[in-house]
Design brief:
alpha+beta; Deoxyuridine 5'-Triphosphate Nucleotidohydrolase, Chain A; 2 domains; five-stranded antiparallel beta sheet; 4 helices; 15 strands
Amino acid sequence: MKTNLIEFFTYDRNSEIMPEPYPAYRNIPKWFSDTPTISRASKCPFRYLADNFVQIDKKINVKGCPGIIDYVSSGYIIPSWNNFLVRNDNGKLYFNWEHQLGEDYALHESDTQASGLTEEEKPLYQGFHKISTPWYIKTSPGVSCLITHPTWHREKRFTSVSGVMHTDKTPMPLKWFFEWNQEMKNDMTADNINKDQIIEKGTPLILITPFVRSKFDHKINYVTEDEMNIKMKYKTSIFVHDWLNKSGYNEFRKNIGKLFK
């Protein structure tokens, strides 16, 4: 089987002073690890009853969802390479950092960058923000990268913007492009810095999931109830039954964790 490669490049002077990108499975969110496994049988912790009432089953939780487990184990995390201080100056955000690492600089975006957004849709502080990271990314031919927010790490102060880069065509400089979600006071001084203003070195900022480009088409199928029961529901129930243990689906999943090294 062909092995694809994703490479991260930075200046050699940075090798001992900042954390490196790493496979996401090496840093499973602590809250997830701390959540006790209530049931080994995979079931959604929320289910709809006949009258559309949502029932919460207390015997199962998020650890019974292979989709979440596989998501937090896929791709690569870009951790914060610096200690950042975020401050509000009359409605505009500014960023300070502890060490100068390569091409560190911030681009302060204006509210005209996405002028089609409604007032309810607009981000805080005059738009989205961008900080250059010290990393360039290059991938094997035919491999692009999905750039997105590491959602399950539950960092709510900011949301990293999603996008796609075709990093096989040329080495691409990685930018941290994000919106800031938290209201901040306008009276910051050296004596009243709030810990929420500090993004510590090592904080997961970006999730990168490389994918192989391939041509797709799509098809919509309308089937009878019997066909749905036989061709879809029956086969699915056999394949994924107890899919956290010995099901065919779980046997397949064992290889997913080996994709990102």
